[in-house]
Design a protein that fits this description.
The protein has two helices and six strands; from the N terminus they run αββαββββ. It is α+β, with helices and mostly antiparallel strands and about 130 residues long. It has a single domain, classed as Thiol Ester Dehydrase, Chain A (Roll), CATH 3.10.129. Strands 1-2-4-5-6-3 form a six-stranded antiparallel beta sheet.
Length: about 130
């Protein structure tokens, strides 16, 4: 997608592929892979689900200097290797440099994860 302004080096096989970006919102899709399994049952490690949601939040802000400050999240249902999950993020509130994104991750019509991501747009890159 040509309008992505942040997280340009993300490995989309691990964090998801953007399928829609609009001002203040995004949708990112992840096809889970065997490398994401936490055990022999095919349970996907929650860090990959969180990574998808975080990436969606960053794209909803879509600023080169956005960083995550904190998140309040809930894992609702397990995800299995081979599942396709989608994260929908939308900015709910802006207060100065802080933007609060609500993110829902779904498999089909079932919510598997939800969270509030407190994002900050810095004056310069966090590593500068």
């Amino acid at each position: 997608m040509e309008n992505i302004r942040t997280h340009l080096k993300i490995d989309q096989t691990l964090c998801g592929k953007p399928i829609r970006i609009r001002e203040g919102s995004s949708t990112v899709e992840l096809i889970t892979r065997s490398e994401m399994a936490a055990d022999d049952t095919g349970l996907v490690h929650g860090g990959f689900v969180f990574g998808l949601a975080d990436y969606a939040a960053m794209l909803a802000v879509n600023h080169p200097n956005v960083v995550l400050g904190s998140a309040d999240v809930q894992f609702q249902k397990p995800v299995r290797v081979g599942d396709t999950i989608k994260a929908n993020a939308s900015i709910q509130r802006v207060s100065g440099k802080k933007q609060i994104a609500e993110v829902l991750v779904q498999k089909d019509d079932t919510v598997v994860f939800k969270g509030q991501f407190n994002c900050f747009v810095l004056d310069k890159h966090v590593l500068d």
